[in-house]
Amino acid sequence: MRTISDDGIPDNVNYQDVVKEMRREFLMVSEGKSKILHRKRMSAGDGTLDVMGAMNEVDKIGVVKHYYYGKNIEFLISLFSMETSEILLAVTGRKLTRIRTAAATGLATDILSRKDSKVLGCIGSGFQAIEQIKAISQLRGIERIMINDINGSRMEHTRDILKGEVDAEVALLPKVDDNFANADIIVTATTSRTPVIEDRFIGNRVHINSIGSYLPEMMETETETICSSRIVAVDSIEETANSCGELISSLSAGCISKGEINEFTDLVKGDIKIREGTARGNTYFKSIGVGVEDLVIARMLFEGKLS
Question: Are strands 144-148 and 169-173 parallel, antiparallel or unpaired?
């Protein structure tokens, strides 16, 4: 069994390659060849234990991921052989989880955003936001990046990290305002309980990735943002419909039904459900993460294909 800590995970990931593998994996899910163990959650003490996983019956490989979200959060990802039951790789998965989430966003962005997208707006500037920006910048010809965060010094630190990583102008914005109406792609990567961008600051034909909120009481975007979107997608309806405040609010409002929501399996097959009567033509992706995404990243790391 190999063990790898965050220090052993590459800093520079080729997201073109990772998104290609992610697309392949979800096609296998759609064909019943790869199976998802949906997140199981149990609260105890001052935190919550989450367990999730996946198995690929063609490649004979599987993954289990678990983490306890209390005063802090740490992840452990185990890659195993379905033929021998051997644990092939054990990874402390904080960094790998950021890469996995950025790769999922990358896949959704590659399918749903305009090919000529040039301006990226990101709300939040932590390590997850940095990885999101790097992934999207590799997949689209991004020329300008706008970053907003409540923490000014963190924004400056993020700008410094991105120097040399992305070939784009990076602008730090003290507040979310009309500047974001110029964005072709918007990412929200926060842990906010209330919307971090008003719907009126989102333009037309924009692709939105909401990846920070993961609990019913958390919302990064307003209900209207989902209600007015032409295409709404998630990595898994089972994971998001009862866990994410944005989806819960929109479903409760009756402005969208579960039958109108696309999963990754719909996107990769091209069977995309389009909602009629929406004025702006925006697309919306909500991610909470599923085990096959961890499987793709852990397998690529094990095989030396992540960098």
Answer: parallel
